[in-house]
Amino acid sequence: MENKKNVWLDADPGIDDAAAFAVLIAYRDRLNICGISSVAGNQSSDRVTANALKLTEFLGAADIPVVRGAAGPLLREPADAGDVHGTSGLGNCVLPEPKKELAAENGLLYMRDVILALPKGEQITIMAIGPLTNIALLIKTFPEVKERIERIVLMGGAAVGGNVTPTAEFNIWEDPEAAKIVFDAGIPIVMCGLDVTHLCGLTREQVDGLLESGGRVQRALGEMLKFYFESPAYQNSDRVYIHDATTALYLVHPEIFGGHMRRVDVDCSEGMNRGMTVCDMRCYDDDGVSCVGNVLVLDQADPVVYQKLLLEAFASFDRDE
Length: 321
Ligand code: BDR
Ligand code: CA
Description:
Elements: E1 5-11, H1 15-26, E2 31-38, H2 45-58, E3 66-68, H3 82-85, H4 107-116, E4 124-128, H5 133-141, E5 149-155, H6 170-174, H7 176-183, E6 189-192, H8 194-197, E7 202-203, H9 204-212, H10 216-228, E8 239-240, H11 243-252, E9 257-266, E10 277-280, E11 295-301, H12 303-316
Parallel strand pairs: 1-2, 1-4, 2-3, 4-5, 5-6, 6-11
Antiparallel strand pairs: 7-8, 9-10, 9-11
Helix pairs in contact: 1-2, 1-10, 1-11, 1-12, 5-7, 9-10
The structure holds beta-D-ribofuranose and calcium ion.
């Protein structure tokens, strides 16, 4: 058996974040989940931090350390996505209060310590499924961690289009300055943006199937995902996108995805494209010299295998109960 892949999860849970937690935890036989940091995004820092504690415990992974990260973007006040994720962040689903406590007072220091304490020669993958505030602060404050980061696999951005504005995706739009720091850091990046997450989803019938299943975890995830259908974005839709779970599945099943290396920049202006990930689709730079991009931008997926793997991961929690 190959060595387990070291992973740090940075998240703003959030309904699709919860689904991503489930995917990663379902694959703990392949992943060494070294810790989880919360970041304000879908809901306030207090709510997403509480959700991270609740989710790890509910999913039988209370041993994974959870720490609190940034309470808001680098330059602006937080703007949550309660219209999509609900007041708690987890739709109508009420999870038991956790017994578990935060692993440290200072999340950033804890992340640094965990990364630098990795055995000699080992690296870590950061999976970031919220605004990139924590990751920007981490690499700016402790640049020595950069060489221990194998890559950052992030949910954010799009080569084409947006979901908060016509050209910006929520995680990047929430903190574009942080995103720019991360994209410019020289660390390999996989961008699991709307180009690929909009290829993958679950149907209303599949979500109903989760709700009707006898399983504790499937029902809870079904309740959360059902909430999506009540938001304006999905009212007339026959499927929901589960962006963050798509990113988590990429980590464990990259073979069902495809993409292109692109140069990606982030629009930090105050103009109408603030938060846009500008993906250079050309294969040469402004001087006509051929160039390779800095980011693997995912834009292909097998949506049927995706559904199968996702539902299997959810079901795996209820099998032995
Ligand atoms: C992203 O924004 C958040 O609302 C979701 O959790 C996901 O990470 C999708 O644009
Ligand atoms: Ca998220």
